[in-house]
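Input sequence (176 aa), recorded before submission:
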Amino acid sequence: MKNNIESFVKQNRKQFDVFEPSERVWKNIEAGLDRQQPKKSLRLYMWSSAAASIVVLSGIFWLLAVKPRKGGPTDIADVNPAIAQREVRFAGIIEEKRDSLQALTEHQPELLKKFSTDLQKLDADYEKLKKELPGSPNPGLVVRAMVRNREIQLGILNQQLLIANQVNGTKKENRL
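Predicted structure, token format:
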């Protein structure tokens, strides 16, 4: 049936082209075109509003979630008081062991200098972590790194004390 209509239109095309639409049809077409233009500007307005909303929401997200916080914890005790007590205990033990090491190596400045280099680097790392703590988005992770740094310092001091005791024992044996 569709082929019949198409063949009919093709055969009688000239007769269809003779007629032009009335003035009323053209006015309806013009009125329809006028109504469609505001829809386009409305679409543009909607897209502009959506884009502006995305920009504003992205800015708010960045301020709240991504930008480092300046009002964060300033000390280990602010993050975890139990870990702060442990860190204070480590700091006291480290100071005692440093004093012992210095006493054992006072006659061996070269050995003390070698030992001090390692500890100074760890102290510098600890201070850097301490400065990062207030602006950190994950203060718990920074605190764990600070405690781990103290544990490493303590381990190194224990090894250095053993070495210093061995060196001093060897020197005493050589004197006898």
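Checked by second reader. Helices lie at 2-11, 13-18, 23-66, 76-79, 81-104, 109-132, 139-175.
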